[in-house]
Amino acid sequence: MKRRRLIGDIETSxxxxxxxxxxxxxxxxxxxxxxxxxxxxxxxxxxxEKRTYCLTWDEExxxxxxxxxxxxxxxxxxxxxxxxxxxxxxxxxRTRCLKHRIPAFPKYTSIDTLLHCRRLFRMNSNKLxxxxxxxxxxxxxxxxxxxxxxxxxxxxxxxxxxxxxxxCKRDVVLLEEVFDILNPYMPARSRMDSDITTCPECGxxxxxxxxxxxxxxxxxxxVSLRCLDCGKYPPAMAASRWDAATA
Length: 247
Hints:
Strand content: 15-25%
Helix content: 25-40%
CATH topology of the largest domain: Nucleotidyltransferase, domain 5
Mean pLDDT: 93
Shape: elongated
Number of domains: 2
């Protein structure tokens, strides 16, 4: 069975607020919000496939239909991959589901590449664009900065919206390229069957004991494995379980 791994990215609008005077110590309460931020577009693709999709809000800048359509896609995925997804993208999507009373799973099997970059490596920056540059991958598409968001939100420019969708789709392609390089170094989040003698990433049976057996403080014997096909390191397991499965 093939894993359905969804790779995504979102672009959001800004809050429109009342303030008397801008400044570095400006404090704005929720009562000052005139227009609430929404999701402008969501780009996504299935890992390993060529086509990248993008959904956007409607002509009235309502994101309900966008969220409704995307949740059908997201709910069908075995794993979802975002950069800063746990703190940003997934929370944003779930919040807009709440706003529109659209059902959403309480928890998704999420692979947040930002968290793995922070936990496993020490690069100068963990931003997606900088990680891509570090890995020798062409980076993000230039947007021209805040003006693009103003053109989309304030002027409702179709040209600006198309550019933002193109930018969002490029981020998804970039994220997949980064993910493919990082993946062998990251722990597996799920497997497609219950066979512990196969790789949870690619399903290969070419697993080898990566190092000598080790013992926990309680005296339990553990084995560390490595896939010879994709290079993934499955989670360490009790040696007795591994021995029984491979006997």
